[in-house]
Amino acid sequence: MSSKSKNLAFENKKPDKNITAWNVLAHELIGLEVKITGGVPRRNIGLSGKIVDETEHTIVIEDNSGNEKRIAKKGIIISLLLTGGCVELKGSDIEYKPEERIKKYWRKYHGKRGLRRQKLPVSWHPFSQGKHD
Questions:
Q1: Cβ contacts of 35 within 8 Å, gap of 6 or more
Q2: Using CA atoms, how far apart are residues 60 and 77, in angstroms rounded to an integer?
Q3: C-alpha distances in angstroms, 59 versus 67, 94, 112?
Q4: CA 91, CA 95: separation in Å to the nearest integer?
Q5: Domains held by the chain: number
Q6: What is the dihedral angle through the alpha carbons of 67, 69, 82, 84, rounded to the nearest 10 degrees?
Q7: Distance between CA atoms of 78 and 106, rounded to whole angstroms?
Q8: Residue-range definition of the domain harbouring residue 66
Q9: Could you report the per-residue pLDDT of 30-51, keeping only the tens digit for each?
Q10: CATH number for position 28
C-alpha cells in the first residue's frame, strides 16, 4: 500500500465525537485511529491503524491488514484522528499507565471550577490546514 493510500485510509475513518483536543489526554486511547508521524526508530514512521491495547510504556497498533505492532511510547510523535482534525501527541506526554494519565489530566484540565482553557495541552491541526497528510 502506498503512503498516499495509507493517508487517505486514515482520513476516511470516523472519529469519536466526544473526544476533542481539549480532553484527549483524559480519555482512553484504545479504539482511536492513530498514525506515527515522527520519532525513533524511523521504521515506525507512517505506521497507521487503530490502537487496540495500551500499557504504561507501549501502545499496540492494529493496521488495516490485521497485523498488530507493539510500539514504545517514549520518543515517538503520534497523530490521533478526532472530530474536525488531528491532534499530535508526544509519546512522553502519554507515558503513564492509562488509568493514571486519565486521572492526572482530568484533574489538571477540569479541576474544581470546570474546564480550564489556559493552554491547549497538545498540538491541534484542523483538517483545513492539511497537517494530517
A1: 10, 46, 47, 48, 78, 79, 81, 86, 132
A2: 15
A3: 14, 10, 31
A4: 6
A5: 1
A6: -70
A7: 20
A8: 3-129
A9: 999 999 999 988 999 999 999 9
A10: 2.30.30.210
